[in-house]
Design brief:
peptidyl-prolyl cis-trans isomerase activity, cytoplasm, Thrombin, subunit H, PPIase_dom_sf, Chitinase A, domain 3, rotamase, 4-stranded antiparallel β-sheet, single chain
C-alpha cells in the first residue's frame, strides 16, 4: 500500500540541519513517527516528498524553510508580562507551549526582566534548511475515528466509542 491521503504512515526519521548537526532521531528514542497523511500532521514539504512511497522505501529529503517551518519573522519576538508564565523561575532558553491563532505554538524565552519577558513565538526550526533521512515502515488505511479526529489513535482505542462521542 502506498502513502496517500487518509492513510496512517509509520516511519523512522533522522533530522539534521544545514550544517549536518543531528537535531532528532526516532531510532535513538526507539519511537517511530506515526501520522495521518493529508491532514497537516507533518510539514508540507515532507508530506509531499513521502506521497506515493510504500513500506520499505528509504529516502533523503532536504527542505528549505518555506517547505518546513517557515521563515523567521522578527515580529514574532515580543515582550510579555512576567505573570503570563506558569512558573516563578524563568531562564532564557525555556520553552512553553501556548495556544496560538493557528493552534498550539512554542514560545521560547529570550530574556527575563523584573516585569517583562522577551519571547520568540517563531517555531524553533523556523528559517532552517532541514534534511530528513526517512524509512517507511508501514502504511494502512485510517479508521473513520482517526479521520474524524484528524490524527492516528493509540493502538487499542475503542474506535466505536470514539465515533459515538463525535456524534454527540
Amino acid at each position: 500500500m502506498q502513502i496517500a491521503p487518509h492513510r496512517v504512515v509509520n516511519l523512522h526519521y533522522r533530522l539534521t540541519d544545514a550544517d549536518g548537526t543531528l537535531l532528532d532521531d526516532s531510532r535513538a528514542r526507539e519511537t517511530p513517527l506515526e501520522y495521518l497523511h493529508g491532514h497537516v500532521n507533518i510539514v508540507s514539504g515532507l508530506e509531499s516528498a513521502l506521497e506515493g512511497h510504500a513500506p520499505g522505501a528509504s529516502l533523503s529529503v532536504t527542505l528549505e524553510p518555506d517547505e518546513a517551518y517557515g521563515q523567521r519573522d522578527e515580529a514574532k519576538v515580543q515582550q510579555v508580562g512576567r505573570g503570563s508564565f506558569p512558573v516563578a523561575e524563568l531562564t532564557p532558553g525555556m520553552r512553553f507551549q501556548t495556544p496560538g491563532e493557528d493552534g498550539p505554538q512554542v514560545v521560547t524565552v529570550l530574556e527575563v526582566g523584573a516585569t517583562q519577558v522577551k519571547v520568540d513565538t517563531n517555531h524553533p526550526l523556523a528559517g532552517e534548511t532541514l534534511t530528513y533521512e526517512l524509512e517507511v515502515l508501514s502504511v494502512r488505511e485510517a479508521t473513520r475515528a482517526e479521520l474524524a479526529k484528524g490524527h492516528p489513535l493509540p493502538e487499542g482505542t475503542d474506535h466505536a466509542k470514539v465515533e459515538d462521542r463525535k456524534v454527540l
